[in-house]
Amino acid sequence: MVDDSSESPSSKRTSIKNYVSRVWKESSVSAVSAIVSTGSVPRKVFRVLVFFLFTAGFLYQCIKFLTYVYSYPTIVNIEIAKPDFYLAPAYTFCNYNMGWDKEASGPYPRIRKKGLTSLSSCYSFYSRVNSPLEPLMKMRNIWWEKSLHEFVFDPEEREVFSPNERPGVVFAIHSPFEAVNPFEKGIFLRPGYSYRITISMHEEKLLPYPYKTDCVNYTEVWLSNNREGPRSQKSCQEYCALEASIYCFKCVHPMVIYPSETRTCGVEFILSPHCVNLSREQNRAADKAFSNCFNKCKDDCFRMKYTYDVLEIYEVPEWTKEENNKQSRLIKVAIDFEDSEIIALHHKPQFQEVEAFSYIGGFIGIWLGVSLVQIADVFESLFRIARYFCKKGASDCCRKSTASKNEEV
């Protein structure tokens, strides 16, 4: 016996359609409720087209925005800070007179001899290249004017043998984490003059991967490596050159300025384009290893740059009498900071999570005129429709099961 009360497929579809229409009419989303409640077919078609067009515009703009956000753009904030403590620079100086072999005098007589001391008279103050020591931090002076550091050099003009040689000192100011060649990036100091050097500091902070600046925090790497290794991008590159030189020549090439206890190469290696005593395959492997090492040297996440102005003042010579009655004029250097101001460039994410969410909310409001409350209402309507559809399907299954049992009886 068949239950006559079961619904036909057409009546079932009509029931679901009426229920869906009623649910969307009650929706707080005005665009959807207006489409459902419109009786005119042309108007309904027009409103549907407009709704889908604006939805496509919203999706396009949202996808473009999210694509830009996930490229991790950054912005640069410029600040002028006056910290209580600041990173003091390092000083490297060399004498043009290769026969010079005396230390500088002044309030800071401790000099670290690094690098090419066997080839030239070069010395460094406060350098932390390949050193386990922390850099020198200076306190900002707010009560009285006093030079940060002072030096007095004796260029020993009497030791100049060639008339073409210029007596004097080349002096470089640089980051304590980098080794420099004063002959390339230094200033020339003449005998019989005093110099006042005013330093300005520029601080820059970058962001690590996945941001475009893609930097490395060399201090963290240095600490995790038991306070060993380079502490800047330039030092990292010089360290790669040092490793390559030792591998190729079993000595340090004269152009490598990263400090090392390994002996310096002789003149015969200076112009050599390839590694010595190595096969062609070993040379290629060495080149590849050097390239890989060099490419790993990314920008520093924190770097301090020092710029300076130099004031040269001629002084009445202070003659120093020697046993042979020859005379030598001194060079005096006073180093100041410009009120200890630091120009800081900080790279920061252009969009935080909250800002990105606000932008997307603005797109929804402009294109669709929908708020979060209305979005919640849409999901509620979809849930009600799905639940009604499931109930109708379950009731049909129950009717079919009852009908089959009656037929068996």
TrEMBL record:
- What Gene Ontology cellular component terms go with this record? plasma membrane
Transmembrane segment boundaries: 48-70, 356-379
Q: Which superkingdom heads the taxonomic lineage of this protein's source?
A: Eukaryota
Q: What Pfam families has UniProt attached to this entry? A: ASC (PF00858)
Keyword Transport recorded:
yes
Gene Ontology MF annotations? ligand-gated sodium channel activity
Q: Per UniProt, what is the membrane topology?
A: Multi-pass membrane protein
- Fetch the InterPro entries from UniProt: ENaC
Localization in the cell: Membrane
> Which keywords label this protein?
Ion channel, Ion transport, Membrane, Sodium, Sodium channel, Sodium transport, Transmembrane, Transmembrane helix, Transport
Instruction: Give the family, as the similarity comment puts it.
Output: Belongs to the amiloride-sensitive sodium channel (TC 1.A.6) family.
Protein's UniProt name? Uncharacterized protein
* Native source species: Oedothorax gibbosus
Its ancestry begins with: Eukaryota, Metazoa, Ecdysozoa, Arthropoda, Chelicerata
